[in-house]
What does this fold into?
Amino acid sequence: MTEAVLLVGGQGTRLRPVTVNTPKPMVPAAGVPFLAHQIARAADAGVTHIVMATCYLAEVFEPYFGDGSDFGVHLEYVVEDEPLGTGGAIRNAARRLTGGPDEPVLVFNGDILTGLDIRGLVESHKAAEADVSLHLVRVSDPRAFGLVPTDSDGRVLAFTEKPQTPEEIVTDQINAGCYVFRRSVIDAIPEGRPVSVERETFPGLLESGAKLYGKTEDTYWLDLGKPESFVQASADLVRGVVASPAVPGPRGESLVLPGAQVAPGAKLFDGTVVGAGARIEAGAVVKGSIVLDGATVRADAQVSASLIGARSVVGERTVVDGAVVGDGARVGADNEVRAGARVWCEAELPDAALRFSSDR
It folds into this structure.
């Protein structure tokens, strides 16, 4: 049996206003809450028991996932009254783990989409008799991430969290947010206070001589912290760029959920999702976007690389490109909402209120 801790306590501030009413892991991607993809992939890899470490809007997880039986796992929930950081959350969840001190515990973040071979990471951890094994990926610009250089055997040499100077960029390998811990290492994390595994636990283990290994895998990896990344992840799941057993339909250019209405002449492509009860009117073009439940995209509107919130309305001939429209918002006709703009939940934008000059 493999156990896991799933970290889902963050507030998702970079995804607002989508996360005002919904925690980031519960925002739908490819037709289901993003968390469903992670749980399904973990179950496929042989994980049988998952402890979900929750904090922000903690009450919404259990009504959807229940005891996990629909996903083939046993799910339990632990709530942080105050945010405890990554290490503190892992330690807080450990009280629900059942394995012995030398058993492996998979730990993964609720905002990462990856094609990682989870079973392979656990097996390599056991073979190396490691204290902690880390999934690493290579990126072209590592400045926004934690750098993890390793030796020729994969043993971790150092941790540099978000390097500030060129001299600190000693590798393109970054911490990809999935780990395997020896259970006894988790039990040694201090209780009852915030702890960062990146800044405190891992450097402390390295200093003490613990065996930390990195497994660098050339696979799909995407941090879903920003709206454009979340929308991209959903589109990639729909198109089958990265696989998930939780996608509720065949891979293709679009995914239309039951109860949605797509008028003749409307065009959906590049991995677009249309949620239950949503409506796409005639002449509308929706490209690589998420249209959540009950939303309406009116006639001749153009929506590209955007997230359209539940029950919201995009007016006739309006262009939404690389933007977020919050739940219940109404964007009037003949507007242009572009380049990272965010329309807040329940906001109303009048007709032709926002336009961009064509000669810019």
Remarks:
- Residues 227-239 form the longest helix (13 residues).
